[in-house]
Write a structure and sequence with these properties.
IGPS catalyzes the conversion of PRFAR and glutamine to IGP, AICAR and glutamate. The HisF subunit catalyzes the cyclization activity that produces IGP and AICAR from PRFAR using the ammonia provided by the HisH subunit. Keywords: Amino-acid biosynthesis, Histidine biosynthesis, Lyase. It comes from Noviherbaspirillum saxi. The protein has 268 residues and is α/β, with parallel strands linked by helices. It has a single domain, classed as Aldolase class I (TIM Barrel, Alpha-Beta Barrel). The protein is 32% helix and 25% strand. The chain contains 9 helices and 12 strands. The longest helix has 11 residues, at 73-83.
């Protein structure tokens, strides 16, 4: 039986890794590479690396952190791929097939599309045709608008008419290989995944659904795997503040009887 995956998410903003809260409050965490090496050593199944930089500025304004201060996303991806011993999905600021090609050439295994897919849905189809559905992930940011779920984009500033399940079905038809469903309302709140949202999307599509947004305890990861049909559980902030966090999370899920790979540590 196919194993369920546990996927850390790293957010890059202007050259720094950051912690996010509801897509509007950010706390700097450190340089963009060292966390990747740690996550590799803790045997993460995969890594999602999202660039949420709004301008074209990549500058830590620090040269004393033991890591080169890179000034472009491509240089950062190149550094990241050299210490990542797990499949990497790279997202953010991707608008063209050339953007995808550059990231894949530097070591990305999959690409995550968000705004570009909303602005031009046929871009999903073109990307899947060119590079294969297996490397095209569509990231779907969702927030409650009254009592209705709506897909949002451009950092939540644009609310679309799409419901998350309809949009997931559309991008599946266009060739996406996976969807990453992120609850803006739960982001950084530590109150658990929006299980109703995940269930709606997972029931609608056949492609793998990755859950994201709200994890504050290992039990929240188990809740999504036990109560919905998601294929993977992803989280960001929770993996930053304890040593061997991915190992501990996988150990918890495996001992709970969930169909995940056993916890492991790698010497890298």
């Amino acid at each position: 039986m196919k194993k369920k995956r546990l996927i850390p998410v790293l957010l890059l903003r202007n050259g720094w890794l950051v912690q996010s809260k509801q897509f509007k409050r950010y706390q700097n965490l450190g340089n963009p590479v060292s966390a990747v090496k740690r996550l590799s050593e803790w045997a993460s199944d995969e890594l999602i690396y999202l660039d949420i930089t709004r301008d074209n500025s990549y500058d830590m304004r620090r040269d004393d952190l033991g890591h080169p201060n890179r000034h472009s996303i491509l240089d950062i991806i190149d550094d990241v791929s050299k210490v990542a011993f797990m499949p990497i999905t790279v997202g953010g600021r991707i608008r063209t097939l050339q953007d995808i090609e550059q990231r894949l050439a530097l070591g990305a295994d999959k690409i995550s599309l968000n705004t570009a897919a909303i602005d031009n849905p046929q871009f999903v189809e073109a990307a899947a045709r060119e590079f294969g559905s297996q490397c095209i992930v569509v990231s779907i940011d969702v927030r409650l608008d009254g009592e209705a779920y709506r897909v949002v984009t451009k950092g939540t500033s644009q609310v679309t008419d799409h419901t998350p399940e309809d949009w997931a079905g559309r991008v599946e038809q266009l060739g996406a290989g996976e969807v990453l469903v992120n609850s803006v309302d739960r982001d950084g709140m530590k109150n658990g995944y929006d299980l109703d949202l995940l269930d709606r999307v997972a029931r609608r599509v056949r492609i793998p659904v990755i859950a994201c947004g709200g994890v504050g305890d290992w039990e929240h990861l188990a809740d999504a795997l036990e109560q919905t049909d998601v294929d993977a559980v992803a989280a960001a902030n929770i993996f930053h503040y304890s040593d061997q966090s991915v190992y501990l999370a996988k150990k918890y899920l495996h001992e709970r009887g969930l169909n995940v790979r056993p916890a492991d540590l790698l010497a890298i």
